[in-house]
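Re: [ENG-882] Designed sequences occasionally contain unexpected residues at chain ends

Forwarding the minimal case from QA. Structure tokens:
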């Protein structure tokens, strides 16, 4: 138990270090010297909308700038999206082109102030050899001071349509990422926001503060999914390997098929349903939550399960003992023992049942 507790502490410390490192990335870190002419349409809209600040009620003038970029990447091109503050939404296109609608929204003291803010935030767009990059760029600290700006109250939203086979990489600092019905390789990360992906060959889906949800995905290799302060949910996912982790969120793996699954959380439950692969390995580690498995099929397995203060229940299975079988521990073999279950929690229960 001491080793398990130490492992959990290391995971928590590592997560905090990652969050600190990511938030330290400067807004002006991306530069794109090579540019080509890209089809675009831009218009600015003034909106007299009240803006509710978090700290006080402050009526703000809003200015919106809309730009549409069109890229001809082909049916299996690559698109990289980078944002600082704002949502990214990607859906499947009906045609062959990839389009990115960029909506910048600035809020200022008056219309002139909001228009000035709009000009301080730019979006770089580059296309070459079947690959496109779209990156939002905010002024550096020195640039902001030169313009007498302590706060740059501007958000940028991307709404993307792309051919089904497009490879998508999406990164944001503060904003949600949603990708739907893209069959190419997909990766998505944000610091403050949700990541939701439906379909595709998902490689990475991560956030620091938010929910990660992946549905109907098929992955040839490994799928990495994690959050620090949110749930990680996988539904109808097939992969060679699945890594799912959270510090304070729940892990839910529903109808997941993989040769290897590693799931860990500190202060919430872990649940998994689906078949076991022959010679597969499944490591589920908790600290203060329950672990629940609902197993489909007839694959045999060896199980090593332990809890310090919770019960272990597996009434649907008849085990051959390999070690201790009791209220707080289970070390046995079911069937041919071809798969391996390694399950542990400190203060939760472990429940294994048949589907």
């Amino acid at each position: 138990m001491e080793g398990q507790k130490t492992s959990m502490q290391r995971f928590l410390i590592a997560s905090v270090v990652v969050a600190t490192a990511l938030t330290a990335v400067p807004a002006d870190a991306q530069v794109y010297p090579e540019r080509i002419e890209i089809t675009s349409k831009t218009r600015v809209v003034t909106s007299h909308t009240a803006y509710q600040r978090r700290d006080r009620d402050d009526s703000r003038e809003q200015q919106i700038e809309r730009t549409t970029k069109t890229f001809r990447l082909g049916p299996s091109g690559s698109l990289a999206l980078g944002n600082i503050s704002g949502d990214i939404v990607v859906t499947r296109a009906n045609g062959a082109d990839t389009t990115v609608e960029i909506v910048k929204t600035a809020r200022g003291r008056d219309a002139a102030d909001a228009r000035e803010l709009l000009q301080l935030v730019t979006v770089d767009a580059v296309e070459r050899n079947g690959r496109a990059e779209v990156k939002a760029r905010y002024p550096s600290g020195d640039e902001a001071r030169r313009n007498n700006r302590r706060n740059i109250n501007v958000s940028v939203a991307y709404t993307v349509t792309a051919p089904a086979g497009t490879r998508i990489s999406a990164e944001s600092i503060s904003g949600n990422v949603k990708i739907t019905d893209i069959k190419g390789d997909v990766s998505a990360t944000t610091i403050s926001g949700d990541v939701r992906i439906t379909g595709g060959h998902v490689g990475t889906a991560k956030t620091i503060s938010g929910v990660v949800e992946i549905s109907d995905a098929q992955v040839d290799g490994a799928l990495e999914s994690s959050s620090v302060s949110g749930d990680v949910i996988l539904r109808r996912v097939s992969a060679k390997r699945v890594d799912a982790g959270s510090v304070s969120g729940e892990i839910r793996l529903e109808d997941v098929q993989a040769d290897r699954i590693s799931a860990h959380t500190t202060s919430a439950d872990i649940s998994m349903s689906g078949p076991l692969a022959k010679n597969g390995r499944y490591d589920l580690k908790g600290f203060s939550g329950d672990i629940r498995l609902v197993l489909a099929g007839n694959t045999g397995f060896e199980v090593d399960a332990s809890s310090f203060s919770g019960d272990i229940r597996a009434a649907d299975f008849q085990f051959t003992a390999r070690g201790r079988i009791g209220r707080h521990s289970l070390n046995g073999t079911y069937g041919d023992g071809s798969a391996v279950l390694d399950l542990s929690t400190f203060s939760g229960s472990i429940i294994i049942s048949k589907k």
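QA comment: On inspection the terminal residues look reasonable. Residues 123 and 136 are 4 Å apart (CA to CA). Proposing we downgrade this to a documentation issue.
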